[in-house]
Amino acid sequence: MLDSALAARLRIIVGDAHFRDDKEALITHSYDGTPMLQAIPDAVVYPESTEQVSAIMEALSSYKVPLISRGSGSNLCGGTVPVQGGVVMVMHRMNRLLELDTENLTATVQPGMITADFIHHIESSGLFYPPDPSSMRISTIGGNIAECSGGLRGLKYGTTKDYVIGLEAVLANGEIIRTGGKLMKDVAGYDLTKLLVGSEGTLAIITEATLKLIPPPKCKMTMLAMFRDLYGAARTVSAIIESRIIPATLEFMDNPTIRVVDDFAKLGLPLDMEAILLIEQDGDPETVARDIEMIRQICEREQADSIQVAATREEAERLLTARRSAFTALARLRPTTILEDATVPRSKIADMVLRINEIAKKYNVIIATFGHAGDGNLHPTATTDARDTEEIHRVEQAFEEIFAAALELGGTITGEHGVGVVKAPFLEWKIGASGVELMKGIKKVFDPDNLLNPGKVFAKQTRKRVVINHG
Amino acid sequence: MLDSALAARLRIIVGDAHFRDDKEALITHSYDGTPMLQAIPDAVVYPESTEQVSAIMEALSSYKVPLISRGSGSNLCGGTVPVQGGVVMVMHRMNRLLELDTENLTATVQPGMITADFIHHIESSGLFYPPDPSSMRISTIGGNIAECSGGLRGLKYGTTKDYVIGLEAVLANGEIIRTGGKLMKDVAGYDLTKLLVGSEGTLAIITEATLKLIPPPKCKMTMLAMFRDLYGAARTVSAIIESRIIPATLEFMDNPTIRVVDDFAKLGLPLDMEAILLIEQDGDPETVARDIEMIRQICEREQADSIQVAATREEAERLLTARRSAFTALARLRPTTILEDATVPRSKIADMVLRINEIAKKYNVIIATFGHAGDGNLHPTATTDARDTEEIHRVEQAFEEIFAAALELGGTITGEHGVGVVKAPFLEWKIGASGVELMKGIKKVFDPDNLLNPGKVFAKQTRKRVVINHG
Predict the structure, then answer these.
(1) pLDDT digits 0-9 by tens, B84-122
(2) Cβ neighbours of residue B433 under 8 Å, at least 6 residues apart?
(3) Total domains, chain B
(4) CB hemisphere CA count around A109 (13 angstroms)
(5) From which residue to which does any coiled coil extend (chains A, B) (predicted)?
(6) Which of B182, B377, B417 sits opposite A345 (nearest CB)?
(7) How confident is the model at residue A321 (pLDDT cuts 50, 70, 90)?
(8) Contact B148 A187 (CB under 8 A)
(9) CATH code, domain with B262
(10) What's residue B267's pLDDT?
């Protein structure tokens, strides 16, 4: 329960209609896209301006009450669950595109704008904002920045980080800072902009972002290749990159995913394939045609069982359906779906998929794997049941071993979902004890009283690293 | 003078031949590429491994003696001058390309490798590392990372920051950390990799870097356009970008630069032109030809007085000569050349050039301006004489006003040279007092005893912002 004087102060700042502490609002904001995680906040506020955010933060800091800022809460790491109580701040009212500057190719936007709406605006102005997280129809730009969201185009175009060039943010004490600007080059001190991107709401509250835009590709082609041999698919990925082609999209689905997707979407996929690659290239027409032809030849050389190149946009959409259905198809199998994002160097994709399969077998759990093969960002996905604590325990053990395997292959515990609560016990595995200490030090500089999204990124206890016993 | 026990310990770590405290070595390492700045170190060490760097740092931290790590010292911000004494650590012996991974398109390199040598290796393997600082023939990769160097290709390809994906670094206490990896996506905690890039040796000593490579463009075309009207040139820059073309290079020289360059290189440039644009595009042949033709049309529309498109590589080299000679030509005019890098949004190029000219006139100093028009990164260059303290004072006043003008136009005090000593008094103008406090806090987390390159980035006193009186 919030101190009544503080509640009254917050009501004055945002207006009565935008302060909620009724049960319904509290429950609605007690969870996010992450399974099996819930905590009730003390209140929910909906600010409409940077000044209100600043005033809220000033009030909360004087009462030492935590703040969890959130957009749509579509994250998968427990990033917006108020695990230590406090006030949830929903950014949806700050959802305006403030400026589209076609001379400098930048957009300045408020954090609460839905990503897909933003992209729609940008594309209808003949420009291009590449980050395309799968959540984009519900996620917000602010959430994307907080988590440094990736997506299907990461391979060629990078992730959210590569497009954020300026920020306005409110600090824990309510002060407003501005970093970067409409500048392609700026080395005035440490790069606070990139530090805030991916900081998961633990360092400051982003209230405005200046994003870099680029000219859109003139055309796009889509193809699908199926492989009986997992290594054939993996060698194809490597051979494409080695032949100096960076496709816009290079997605992968393993056999368990193919089976589930086909059962769900009735696409008539061959169920004996070990892997499907979905490949897209964009750019100028001549380049795209040449690249797709080279990729087709590589697929043939690597014994692809079937190769389909879409002749029309409609056909391309049909080819995309399988990959797009993957999560939905898996999610309907059993009550609980846990989607992870262990990431490896792209040359290690096949090794990693085999390791995931071994681990799933060892713990007798169902894990299907799909994801972004081109950048090594895989989504091993467990279908399970949160009510079966014994099975959930095995799933957790399996994922622990999957993270360890990713690190052993030169990878990371999270490629695009963030640390949040879920990966916090494993952060030290990736960055080491000194790395974690540095990060904790940075957190303390920005937020000495630990008020901004407390309980995230840093775990009370680091998990002991499992010793992997192959075979 | 170094404590003799410490000196003995350093000698043991690096070997007698690689520890120097003779007068010649101390004087040689008392300055860098920055004019009018010199300070004598207490010793110079030349480590050959990360382990040696770690042992050196452990020794220095126990004696609380500062360390200044440097490559070739080609920076222009006083970044490697030992202004508070201490030990200069020269990284030239750690100059190996450790791995070129053609499957993952990464290179792992030691910091002391000369940038041009690195680029030569990469290009002869059919790959591409875009950052191309003008200093590349003498500068090191480690220096480029410390300063986040830019270059002529920044507009299209970004700067050093965009290519550093993993680091090994030694902390102030001698501990070794590793960040990132051969990963295109990694969101495991705060982005320490990008934080270290551009931190000017004040947070940690970089001992190894993993760099992202990309496929090389298949061809390149070069053109030169001359304008009687400065705004015509500026409008051309904007119109190119607005027509959705991002050239590989889009360089600018103003009239004073043209005059000096022509006098130096005898190129027969027309001396009544207000601006020359040097434009290059690279990529697939069809795209390049189409873009260059569109750019040619834009130049014509904006009343370019002459437009030359190079038909051969030799002709292209000839067109490039003017821009390449700019610094050398200016440097020979008078004893002291001060090259700055005030940067503005690219739409403000013409305004900025006019402001620079006004300011130069007001203080009766010679300032010629050239630079990277495409990303708004200008190099106003004063030719002066360090011995004439009265004139130098006027030059400093002029630059102070130039920085203020850049900020007023939405720009920054430094686009690619770094803060070092030279820009430290102005850092607060860009990032505000809270921003500077955050940066100081980060510095303290990494380096609590202020041993790593002390006296840089943060000034003892912030310069009072000048009030600009137009006209």
Answers:
(1) 999 999 999 999 999 999 999 999 999 999 999 999 999
(2) none
(3) 2
(4) 31
(5) none
(6) B182
(7) confident
(8) yes
(9) 3.40.462.40
(10) 87
